[in-house]
Each structure stands twice: as C-alpha cells, then as structure tokens.
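Below is how a single chain appears once it has passed through the pipeline. First comes the sequence as given, then the structure the pipeline wrote out for it. We keep one example in the README because the format questions we get most often are answered faster by looking than by reading.
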Amino acid sequence: QVQLVESGGGLVQSGWSLRLSCVASGLDFSRSEMAWYRQAPVKEREFVAGISNFVGSTGYADSVKERFTISTDKATNTVYLQMNSLKPEDTAVYYCNAWPDWWGQGTQVTVSS
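Resulting structure:
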C-alpha cells in the first residue's frame, strides 16, 4: 500500500517562501516518478513539478519555472517542493503524486497580497 504524507503548507505573504515535504512509503522510491500538483478553488487540478528518481530529470509548469524547485532525498523517501517568490495565484491545495495514480491528502498553501 503506497502512502504519501504531505506537510509544510501555510499562510504566507506575497514574495515569501515555503517548502513542502512529502514522505512516501510502500514503493521503490529510488525508481519512482514523483510530482506535485495543485488545485485552486473552482479550478481543475494542475501539474506543478515532477521528478524522475530513476533518471534524475525534472520538469516544471511554465507558471512556476524559476521560482519553484523539486528535489528528493532518497535516504528518507522524501520529495520536496521549494517555493520562492510566492504569488497570490499560487494559492491552492498542493498534492503529492507518485506514478501512476497515488495521491497524498493535500496541504493548503495560501498567499496573501
């Protein structure tokens, strides 16, 4: 049974930073494809950033490039999302994803202007 547990969300002001964490269990983390998605009110869930632990490649949505960084710690089975220069439009529930279709419970990020 795959479990993903997110943490690190909160309420911050525009321009501030946050780091989200997701601890994964029940999967071969070193070979996993991990990602962060987000869903704002009345919007569909959207891809934010992804990383291949096997290949070592990363990918980002255009809206977060140069501001967000995804990384992993294979020793602790943790995937991080470092979010800098946060904007009000980054406000959403952020979900950790493990390919193909495993999801965490989500963590709320709210950015005030």
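Residues 33 and 52 are 5 Å apart (CA to CA).

See the next section for the split statistics.
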